[in-house]
Amino acid sequence: MTALSGEKILITGATGQVALPVAIALAADSEVWAIARFNDAGARARLEAAGVKCVVVDFEKADFTGVPDDFGYVLNFGVAKTNDFDRDLAGNAEATGLLMAHCRSARAFLHCSSTAVYQPDGHHRFAETDPLGDNHRAFGFMPTYSISKIATEAVVRTEARQLNLPTTIARLSAPFGDNGGWPAFHLEMMIAGHAVPVHVDAPSEYNLIHEDDIIATVPRLLDAAAVPATIVNWAGNEIVSIEDWCAELGRLTGLDPTFGPTERTIESVAIDTTKMHELIGACAVDWRDGLRRMVQARHPELLQH
């Protein structure tokens, strides 16, 4: 499958950085429904202007009575990050299991997990079979995130088998694009003259993946759905460091990045994309071009011509 057309699709977390452009893109050719709290009125307005049907759902309560159950595909991008374990396990793991049960007739379910599930291991290139662990709590940054993501993966794996629902668990790396992401945050720090945190075990390496590539690979990830669930990294082709992408942002804008090495930040999470490339193919957007487009979209006044 290279595109989704004429389908009825449910997307959770559609006001977020990653899912919003996905929902808008899919709504051009399919009937797209979005469920979220919709506290961001501007994001809801953008979705509705694109033709997305928005339904308010509190994922901690996981009450889907107002949501249809006849979707062909379900894309789960929602994530609770309150830093309270009870609330985040309810809003992530429990809610996702209940959503899968509600949409058990779907042809495929895509769960967006995170490469934050991997146990930190320096500059190792993480494959899908590597040990899982908590790479957030030790740094005081989103302390419930890794454990909630791991717990949710376990629930998704269980429900895929119990419901016989073809499922893909895609561990997303470092997403970015016109709608934001880590490089956009670092650009704002550079504008403000703040030092960008990097881990002392330099360089701080990740796999940037552009929102266009996320949109393009969603249909292929749905094609790969299976029982038991398919688990695959979802990442850009190249390993890129924070130091390198900030240097490129400096080249594009004339700003001079500075760095603050510290142990109180996330270590490198560089990804092995072998299985991904075999399963759904490689990404198309070069990270440098993606950064240029991001600057053009968010701060065109800074772009050096």
Using brief descriptors, characterize the structure shown:
about 300 residues, Rossmann fold, three-stranded mixed sheet, alpha/beta
CATH architectural label: 3-Layer(aba) Sandwich
CATH H-level superfamily title: NAD(P)-binding Rossmann-like Domain
* Beta fraction: 15-25%
Amount of helix:
25-40%
The global form is globular
Outline the fold blueprint.
Layout: E1 8-12, H1 19-26, E2 31-36, H2 41-49, E3 53-56, E4 73-76, H3 85-102, E5 108-114, E6 125-126, H4 145-163, E7 167-172, E8 174-177, E9 180-181, H5 182-192, E10 196-199, E11 205-206, E12 208-210, H6 211-223, E13 230-234, E14 240-241, H7 242-253, E15 259-262, E16 270-271, H8 274-279, H9 287-298
Parallel strand pairs: 1-2, 1-4, 2-3, 4-5, 5-7, 6-16, 7-13, 8-12, 10-15
Antiparallel strand pairs: 8-9, 11-14
Helix pairs in contact: 3-4, 5-7, 7-9
Report what the structure shows.
This protein is α/β, with parallel strands linked by helices and 305 residues long. It is built from 9 helices and 16 strands. Helix 3 packs parallel to helix 4 and helix 5 crosses helix 7. The longest helix has 19 residues. A 7-stranded parallel β-sheet has the order 3-2-1-4-5-7-13, sandwiched between helices. Strands 9-8-12 form a 3-stranded mixed β-sheet. Helix content is 35%, strand content 20%.
Brief summary:
The chain has 305 residues and is of the alpha/beta class.
